[in-house]
Amino acid sequence: MRVAIVDGDVSYPATSGKRLRTLNLMLRLAPRHQIVYIGRCAPGSDEQKLAPDFLRSHGIEPVIVADPVPKKSGVAFYARLARNLLSSSPYSVTSHQSQAMRDAVGRVAREQRIDLWQFEWTPYLDALDRAIAAPRLVMAHNVDTLIWQRYYENETRFLHRRFLKTQWRKFEAFEKRAFARADRVVAVSEEDAKLIRTQFGQPATDVVDNGIDREFFASVQGPHDPHTVLFLGALDWRPNLDAVELLLSRIFPEVRRQEPSVKLVIVGRNPPAALATRIAGTPGIELHANVPDVRPFLGQAGAMTVPLRIGGGSRLKILEALASGLPVVSTKVGAEGLNLIPGEHFVEADEHAMASALVEAIRHPDRMRQQVEVARILVAAQYDWGVLAEKLEASWNRCLHPLPLGLGSPLAPREDSGSAPSDRMANSRTPLAEREGYLEGKPPHDAAPSPPAPLPRRGEGSKAGAA
Question: What does pTM read for this prediction?
Fold first, then answer.
């Protein structure tokens, strides 16, 4: 099968949860299919410099489009926001419109026979001429409507709430149109898939979970110091910044009041300067930005905290922690989309109970270790990228050869797959390739010196919900 993958964010180096997913699935399918990868990045970036050779070494044809997404700062940014008030499309969609991407996609469509087009985000469906009669599959890394609804629900400032509500409703209308245009949609969780099938009216929706390289994380060694709490996540993604604000302002001060020797370690890519300054002046907190390998931090900590209030999809960082033997304390939103049972595989606590749950984890490390060993077995069995790539391959085949809806059809929703999607949207507020050395595009020190280049692995530089 000849597949063209259209991506608005070049997935190498793999510095985010979305990139990890796209790259790991693609690399595992490349030996069995001819893949053309059309990806967008900034001119002169590491992505433009490093991705072509890496992809070619794995038998993937790269078409890299150097066309930057507009910056979210400055006078021009606020002018674009003002113009968007008159648009029926969300700002995130209009800001990603790209003639250069449309030209690249059109050129590939004219010059090659493509059996299937896969789009890594709904706005890029418009890059392919609607007159081209080829199957279209959308990879729904998140249901963006849900994320914007949660932004709105967690905002308290009046004008900000009005803007966020407008963007939420625009995304709802946009995603309904976009999902309907796709021949098939692949979601990252059954919860997201139910929303897409029911609220957005696209029954041809499959689930391919997020995953991990289990052998990579099984190698994690460390003391798992109970008095070290880890937060892991991209610090240029708004849901993670909201979670960090909760940690710094409310959760960690209470934990430190009860356990004065506790240390909070925050690891993530691209932290804002204001956040770095704030952490530098706060006792008991460390910030590690753009690290090449997260495993040492996973080994040192006694628990990972995931105090997310906003997000969608599912969190790779929780899978990575559990596969590393690191216990997790998470909100319901944080662990959403994963086949994990609160109290059996992780500790669930809302934002108000998070501090108490972390204190309990510090004081009862043996109990936490017993829990994580149960979770570790489940993660190894269900969330390996190799197994998940086979599920995506099956979706490709169903997209090319669709079956009629009905009992036993892969399009029919599963009856045992969790809470009703209407409940999830109506009451969303709860009281979003593993890399080692790939942040800089360098292979790990023990990688084979000759091509093909090694598969991507996670060091944290990482739309769950992102990761």
Answer: 0.80
Tell me, which fold does domain 214-382 have in CATH?
Rossmann fold (3.40.50)
CA distance 143 to 196: 8
- 168 conformational bin, left if phi > 0, alpha if psi -120 to 50, beta if neither: alpha
Quick one: three-class SS letters along 10-78? CCCCCCCHHHHHHHHHHHHHCCCCEEEEEEEECCCCHHHHHHHHHHHHCCEEEEEEECCCCCCCHHHHH
Name the token pair of 250: 């409310």
Confidence of residue 73 (pLDDT cuts 50, 70, 90): confident
CA distance 149 to 169: 8
Architecture of domain 2-210+386-426: 3-Layer(aba) Sandwich (3.40)
b/e code 112-151 from CB counts within 10 Å (16+ = b): eebebbbbbbbbbbbbbeeeeeebbbbbbbbbbbbbbbbb
Q: Residue 419 pLDDT more than 90?
A: no
